[in-house]
Structure formats: C-alpha cells, structure tokens
Predict the 3D structure of the following.
Amino acid sequence: MKKIISICTVLIVILSVPIYKYIEFSNERLNNYSDKILSIAVNTNNSIYFLTEQSTSEESFIHDSNDLISNIYALETVLDSAYIFLTGSGIYSNSFYYLSDNLMKELKYNNLNKETIEDLNTITRSTDILIQRLRPYYGTGSNISKKEIIHAIEDSLEEMDKLHYIKLWRD
C-alpha cells in the first residue's frame, strides 16, 4: 500500500509541473495582452491631450493628429486580437475605425468643432475604462484574469458604440 501511495505521489508531482508551467505561461500571456492594451490606451489619451492642449503650430497639430489616428488603429487592432485570443470569436464593433475615419476628415488646425470634440471625448472615456480596469495589474506581479480583460474590452467598446449609434441615428 505504501508503494502505491508513493508512486501516486511521484506521479502527481511529475504531472503537476507541466500544468504549473502551462498556467504560468497562460498568466504571462494575459498580463502581456493587458500591458499592450494599457500602453496603447495611455498613448491614445496622451495623443488627444497633445492634440487639444499642446499643438501650438499647424505642423505639430498635423503630427499629433496623425499620431492619434495611428494610436486609434493600433488600439482597435490590439483589442480585436486580444478578444479573439480570449474568446475565440471576433469583436462585433468597428466604432474605432469609424471614428478614426471621421477624425481624419474632421481634424483641422484651429478648427476643432463641437462634433470633433465629442468624438475625442468619447475616445477618452473609452480608453479611460481600459486604463482604470487594467492599470491595477501593471507592474504589480499580480495576474489579471481572462474575464477582467474581456469585460474591460467589452465596456470600452460599448462606450464607443454609443457614439457610433447616436451618429448613425442623427444621419
């Protein structure tokens, strides 16, 4: 009986190492996705700030608006890939692309109209959701769960979709 118990114990220990490594690898991937999303969300917010508050010349405005559009596309891409990785299905929202396409047409130096400001505020609120949800895990060594990332993405996109549907309704 003691031999059976010791053999079972050894098997459990041997089999638990790959499981532990898999879980550790999975947590590392989740943390990496969370960090990427957080980084791009912060960059997007910074781009909006520089565009609205720091652009003192037409040249800097053009640079900041191009930077913002790039960050919006990057954010949509990383949210889409993270969502596919975590859920196995795609995001049913193209609000970031819709907004970035509109912003490319609307952004003019010294002429940020009410609608453009509304778009920028919506993007800021959407990225703020991501930042608030993901920042507590950044650099702390604690692991973020799959559900937390999914909910952060969904809530952020829901904020973007609100504006998208309002604009469609107006047109």
Q: What stands out?
A: The chain has five helices and no strands. Residues 33-170 form a domain with the Four Helix Bundle (Hemerythrin (Met), subunit A) fold (CATH 1.20.120). The helical segments are 2-54, 58-87, 95-106, 114-134, 146-170.
